[in-house]
Design brief:
The protein has 18 helices and 15 strands. By secondary structure, it is an alpha/beta fold. It holds the Pfam family CBS.
Length: 401
């Protein structure tokens, strides 16, 4: 069974995954925002396609295409919260999307479809958030796509073709799901507690309930990069809630106004999946006026007014208008932090994380005192060490023979 697991290729995990919708590297941040709202996706991939090259690797007529990275609403929100951009958000949205994507190295990596699962795990442990995998197709479908590329520009935001190929994301969650389906291979490790396996990371990102939300911006950037979250605690380190990059990614760009004006505790309420209370929306607008941040106030009004020129669709399509920047709602969103205990088994924690579509779980005591956090990264590292020992044993057996 171990050898079968080691022989797994990434193409085995990518079966049935949808093709990536692309955004050209010539796009602006505003166009990226529009694509995110239109597609309903958390992320959109940004591609660079060089149509000036007639020869690539000795082949005539092949266009050089590569995924530069990905962008989500969190990237836009943090960008708008910059001191200069908060003064002129509409101008900031005209910035090239590449400026946001290229700020972070290694978030996206390309792998071939015949790459091993262990190669994919190694890339993730090295910091890749998403792996770009070519989708294997039949000769007939390839012929159809070559015909389609003649009538559809590869730079169209609705195109999924690059060099006649389609690609998909491979994420940490995809790999963890596969491991969960193959969990018997790793017995008895999954039955051990996360504490005994030393999977609890005590180096957590925390902010006090009464601290300003803007003070958490560097933490939001780190949490977004590491696919974790920020714990909101009180004076005795009791977990009250969280500021989750995933929750932020379900918002629209006007959430930057809330981060700029509210406390961490109020921002949690603003991010609640039912939408922010009207009194908080009013508080944000009042504080924007007090700080002469009129351009951000105009942006909020534009996004919340379906008849404005800044809105390119109806409230029903984009989900904006009456909920103060909570326009992008997803079934997976939640208002409460997902928690577990040190004595929970690895198997139980994995199931809990997958069920709630999160890449982490807060580890707390019975009184909700914060102990630490367990993440997909720690879990993948545990399984990678086990698989590495299988490889080592296999090599030693071969030497003996």
């Amino acid at each position: 069974m171990a050898q079968t697991f080691l022989a797994t290729q990434v193409s085995d995990i990518c079966v049935g995954k949808p093709s990536l919708r692309s955004l050209p590297s010539t796009s602006t941040v505003a166009e990226a925002v529009a694509e995110l709202k239109k597609s309903g996706e958390i992320y959109v991939s940004v591609w660079e396609c060089d149509h000036d090259h007639n020869k690539v690797n000795g082949d005539e007529g092949i266009v050089y295409c590569r995924c530069l990275g990905k962008i989500c609403m969190v990237d836009v929100i943090v960008f708008l919260c910059d001191k200069e951009n908060i003064l002129c958000p509409l101008e900031a949205l005209k910035t090239s999307v590449v400026d946001l994507v290229m700020n972070v190295d290694g978030r996206v990596m390309h792998l071939e479809s015949d790459s091993s699962l262990l190669e994919a795990i190694d890339c993730i442990l090295e910091g890749a958030q998403n792996l770009v995998i070519p989708i294997e197709t039949t000769t007939k479908s390839n012929r159809r796509k070559k015909n389609l590329i003649n009538i559809t520009s590869p730079l169209s935001t609705t195109s999924t073709l690059h060099n006649g190929k389609e690609f998909c994301w491979l994420t940490q969650e995809d790999v963890i799901r596969f491991l969960l389906n193959s969990i018997n291979v790793f017995s008895p490790i999954p039955s051990f507690t996360i504490e005994s396996l030393n999977l609890i990371n005590t180096d957590t990102l925390t902010v006090h309930y009464n601290d300003s939300a803007s003070s958490a911006l560097p933490l939001i950037t780190r949490a977004h990069l590491n696919q974790t979250s920020i714990a909101v605690v009180n004076h005795d380190n009791t977990l009250i809630g969280e500021i989750s990059p995933f929750a932020l990614s379900c918002c629209d760009e006007t959430i930057a106004a809330a981060i700029t004006t509210l406390s961490a505790g109020d921002l949690m309420a603003y991010l609640d999946y039912m939408g922010p209370p009207e009194d908080l929306v009013h508080l944000v607008k009042t504080r924007l006026q007090d700080r002469n941040l009129n351009s951000m106030l105009d942006l909020m009004d534009d996004c919340n007014n379906p008849s404005s020129s800044a809105s390119s669709s109806s409230d029903e399509e984009y989900g904006s208008g009456k909920n103060g920047g909570m326009g992008r709602s997803y079934p997976g969103r939640r208002s409460e932090a997902i928690v577990c205990n040190p004595w929970n088994s690895l198997m139980a924690v994995m199931v809990q994380m997958i069920a709630h579509r999160v890449s982490y779980a807060w580890v707390v005591k019975e009184d909700y005192g914060l102990v630490g956090i367990v993440t997909f990264t720690e879990i993948l590292g545990q399984f990678r060490r086990i698989a590495g020992s299988w490889n080592k044993c296999g090599e030693e057996n071969i030497k003996r023979k």
